Amino acid sequence: MLVSISSEWCKELSLEELQEVVKQNKAWYERLAAQGKIKGGQALLREGAVVTSKGSRFISDGPFPESKEAIGGTLWLDVATLAEAVAIAQTLPGLRYNTTIEVRPVAEECPTYAWARELAQQQQPAAAAA
Amino acid sequence: MSTQSNTGYLIIFRGTDWYQGLSPEQMQQVADNWMAWFKRLKDEGKCAGGNPLEREGKVVSGKNKVVSDGPFAESKESIGGYFLLTVGTMDEAVAIAQQCPGLPYGIRVEVRPIAPQCPIVDELESKEHLAHA
Question: Which of A53-67, B4-18, B53-67 has the lowest mean pLDDT?
C-alpha cells in the first residue's frame, strides 16, 4: 500500500506546471494499471473528521492530525515484495514537490493476533517457572 | 457537517501501540470485535473492503527519492489499517467510525471523503477557469 502524504503543493503551481503534473500523473497511473499492478486506490479530499474516544472533530480545510501534512491518497499495489513497491513509489511524479510516500505491506491477518500470540508465548515460560 | 459523497469515505485507523498493557486474551478480544464489526458492515453493504497494515514499512520522500525505514508518523499517529465505506454522508461515516472497538484504547479514526477525481485535477480546472474568465 502506498500512502501519499503532502501539503497542498499544487496550489502554488502555475497553470502550465499543473497541466504538466496532471499529464505526468495520468501517464504514471495508466502505465501501472496497464501492467496490472494496481489493485485499488483513492484520492482524498482535504476535509474530514477525526474520531477519538473523547468525541469527533470536523476539519474543513486540512491539515490533519498533529503534522502539517495530510494523507492525499492511497494506492494498493499488486506486487510481491516491499522492494518492488518502493521502486514504484520512487517513480511517482509528485515526489518532486516534496511529497512523502509511505510504503506499507498489507497484512494477511490483523497484526494484533500475532502480537497476542507473541505475548502469550512470553508469559508462558514465566508461568511454568512459577 | 452533512457533506455528501457519492464516492464513499475512507476511514483510517491511527495508532499502533494501543495494545500496550493489555493481556493476550484482551488483545484477541478487541481484534475479534474488530473483525466482527468489519464483517457486519460488509454484510450491511456499508463497507466495500479494508485491510490491516504491517507495522513496519518504508518511506520515500522528496526530490532525491530518499528511502528510509517507516512508518512516517510516530506510533500513536501511525496508520494501522483502513476501511472503505460506501455510505453517502459524512455523518453516517462518522457514526460508523464511532463504533470502532479500538477507540477506548486510544485508537483515533480519521474519516476522509474520497475525491471523485484527483484534487490536483480540480485545482487545474479552477486555474483554467480563472485563466479563461
Answer: A53-67
Lateral strand order in the sheet of A2-6: A38-43, A70-77, A2-6, A100-103, B57-61, B66-70
At B46, give phi and psi (nearest 5°): -100, -5
Nearest to A43 among B53, B84, B118 (CB): B118
pLDDT higher than 60, residue B1: no
Q: How far is CA B7 from the centre of its chain?
A: 15
Q: How confident is the model at residue B39 (pLDDT cuts 50, 70, 90)?
A: very high
In chain A, residues with a C-beta closer than 8 Å to the C-beta of B73 are: 65, 67
pTM: 0.91
List, in sequence order, every residue forming a beta bridge with B49; answer none if it has no partner: B84
Evaluate whether A46 touches A70 at the Cβ level (below 8 Å).
yes
ipTM exceeding the 0.85 mark: yes
Cβ-contact A26, A13 below 8 angstroms: no
What residues of A are in contact with residue B95 (Cβ under 8 Å)?
none
Interface test with B, best of A110, A118, A121 (most B CBs within 10 A): A110
Q: Contact, A61 vs B113, CB < 8 A?
A: no
When CB atoms are compared, the residue of B58, B90, B98 closest to A82 is: B58
B24-43 vs A111-129: helix crossing angle, rounded to 10 = 160
Select from B49, B112, B52 the least CA-distant residue to B78.
Answer: B52
The closest CB to that of A104, out of B53, B61, B109, belongs to B53
